[in-house]
Design brief:
353 residues; alpha/beta; Rossmann fold; 2 domains; 12 strands
Amino acid sequence: MKLISRSSAAKALSLAAVSALVLSGCAAAPETTAEPIDFLACAVSDEGNWNDKSFNEAVYTGLLQAEAELGVQVNALESATPEDFEPNLQASVDAGCDIIIGVGFALGDAITKISAENPDLNFALVDSTSESTNVKPLLFETAEAAFLAGYAAADLSTTKTIGTYGGLPFPSVTDFMTGYYYGAMQWGMDNDTEVTVLGWDPMDPDAGSMMGGFAPNSPESLALAKTQIQGGADVILPVGGNQFTAVQSAIDELNPDAAMLGVDVDIAAQNPDLAKYILTSIEKRMAIATFDVIKGLVDGAAFDATPYIGTLANKGVAISAFTDFSSKVSSGLAAKLVELEAGIIDGTYKPKG
């Protein structure tokens, strides 16, 4: 296989009029410790860019880790709009990639089409499945971690009203909201206190609060955050990529004592300016999944389309440290969350009801 350097790949892809290869502005690349090898790992972003401090960047971080530690070459293509998905995937095929990773369920149709046309190539798809037998789904039981986050949110709340809203009602969105809901309800049962969750009820999903898309910090996001704070919510979980500046604006305007939760990555760590607003984040450890899939192929394992499923048990999902809120949650919360995590793993607690 002919390897393509970052610079030469960028030139070729520019001539093909597809998205530019990302060279900077994203997560800092780890120090390279491995000799270069004949392996090209590629990824195509969801709508947005690689330094979104969220979903795309998590996969990009795993790609850079594989480059540094395994010696692979990488191509990372951004998709400015959904119309870029198929051209970027085809450009990756043309580049001779050994693995092509589609970042997000929105790429599902495009990756199914391109993978079916290239049955001898290996693909992976984050947050969705595919009917193609050469696509490995990278899935995450986010409801498990969200259950813990919902419990913590109810614990922190002084009004015992918390809120959540999403981008669109896809399972990869609503699983966050459902786990959050049931975790809050569990806190209510444990403490004989009524807890209200605005924006989502798993028993009535059609009434859920949705932005209608995933544009970062959209006016719709700001409006929903304001509505929920005005409705009494003092902890909010936005599930739609980077909505954190929008929620911050709503908090600053309406209730400076309110808090929010991050999704996908440790938002407080990625955005120190937001740390004082972030109770915790519900992490899908996509960097780990990305690295592990690449490493398996580099180590000589046969490609396996069996889904990777990130769980609390295998550390594929988790909640982040409380950081700025560690002194504000109840003294027994940390121990209780350890107990709940064990109960989720052994089946005692059901994060999806």
